Fold:
Amino acid sequence: MKSDFFVLEGEKIRCVLCPNKCLLDEGGFGACKVRMRKDGKIVNYYDGIISATNLDPIEKKPLYRFMPGSKIFSIGFFGCTLNCKFCQNHTISQINSEASANILKNKKYSPKEIVNYLIKNNLPSIAFTYSEPTLYFEWVLETSQLCRKNGIKTVLVTNGYLNEEPAKILLEYIDAANIDLKSAKDEFYVKICSGRIEPVKKFIEIAFEKKVHIEITTLVIPQTNDKIEECVEITKFIANLSENIPFHISRYFPNYKFNISETPKETIYRWRDEAKKRLKFVYMGNMF
Structure:
């Protein structure tokens, strides 16, 4: 599927799906390693290729106040618009040449095939998850539109790093989303995630305006974003939209390029107590 989210700049094309706005020569990939320039257009190199599927409790997304107690068909992708040094899914989010060759061996699925599977198996909802689903924008949009026609609920599990125009289009067909707000600080996004914070906050605001059921998750990492002031700033932002937005405070464990020790449980308890001053629904994650 080709993308309409690009602009010509001389002999180059700028992809404007996400805030990275990569400038591409013919055959070149964006920072995501998924979207590329081909025949003067931007395309998804792995269009229709799925990293994993599973039938999950919806609480694993995590969504605690949307269709609670139900099972959701989860479908995953490859690549990411960010490059978080602590990524929990780096084996599918960060693509190198070896990974690319293996990915291309996988079967491709059309949106219609997936929706027909959901209908046949009487599955009431689908989650686009595991890696960053907005990179598969056209595929996810078409699937979501078909789901809407067939009464199937759609869930987006996302970092929210998407430009405003595509966000407004996609979120029209999304029923619920869990969105990462990784820090209150732009510096964190720049140094740790190779991104910026403002597009994420704008995505959350658009989702709220579109009446998508949203829940927010922050992974709390020692020596990085764990100060209680971060909790105050994040929860003030959320509460300014609605005190009824659920907030998930997730405990970090070492992964990918981060070997900092896991977050002490006491830190998560302090964040929970602080968050409850502003928000009605506060949950702790990874507390095993």
